[in-house]
Amino acid sequence: MTVGLPGMIRRGVVVHTPHYIRPRGPRTAISAELADAWRSMDVQAAVGERLGLPALVLNDAEVHGAGVIAASGLELVLTLGTGLGSALFLGGSLAPHLEWSHAPVRPRTTYDEFVGEPERRRLGNALWSRRVLRVVEGLRPVFWWDRLYLGGGNARQITRGVLDRLGDDVVVVPNSAALVGGARAWSLPR
Question: Do you know which Gene3D superfamilies this protein is assigned to (predicted)?
């Protein structure tokens, strides 16, 4: 059983999961009770014990990436959904997770807030797609990837004009890749 959770997950243990501690959704108040319940929770052990099966718990973008990477060179996976997920692979090995989606892209605005679902709905697909392009262009000189995969539920909302400007090293992949990733994640070198 593979489980992908948004947020910072290390060895199956929650470091931080911002979405599950806000009962009314993104940009709403944090529940102290939920924050305490999720803090340092060993989800991998809990799922394995509950189901009586071996469990693997990773960040959801890491599971998605496991389903699409070619295991060649430096591959970055960005998932566009409620917020911005990310996973980095080198030669098919999963790198330690960086939750840079909570870093500021501009004063008082994180990457999650900049390209997350609330902004896509507010701006519409055309303006939101330009923001995605800005994120990709801003990250290119930081990562110098061999391949960037854009996935998640909103990747299909990127407009044709922006898709044409992303470059040959950027590939949009279906959200369903996470299903394949769930199986392939078990064979990732760690």
Answer: 3.30.420.40
